[in-house]
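Re: the 129-residue chain
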Amino acid sequence: MRLYFAIIFIALNSALGFGQEAEFHFLEKTTVKLGDFKEGEIAKHKFYFVNSGDAPLFIYAADVSCSCTKTKFTTEPIAPGDTSFFEVSFDTNGKFYWQDRVIVISSNAKKKEKLRIKLYVIPKEEEGN
């Protein structure tokens, strides 16, 4: 009889857990224009978000296409309803004119999220003009 109740308890508990999902909800636009920067400056921006799902959110990676773009984020689980951020920094050294970078976030959420920064880099030789 105990085994019967234990099996029912485990089955119900497992069924309830399947419906839980983590989910991103960004508190601002996911594409931002950072303005103009002189070559050699570091451009930074923080993207704030909330876990709007009903399960802890685990962020595994934030992939970028260029080593000039770096990200910082928590590796700790983010509880439902809690807020956190991605800090994106872009090194303008050796970069010129319009720059457009996409960051792809891998997590346990249903879909991958994308962040995007745009900025204009003024080359060193043009600064005096």
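Helices lie at 2-18.
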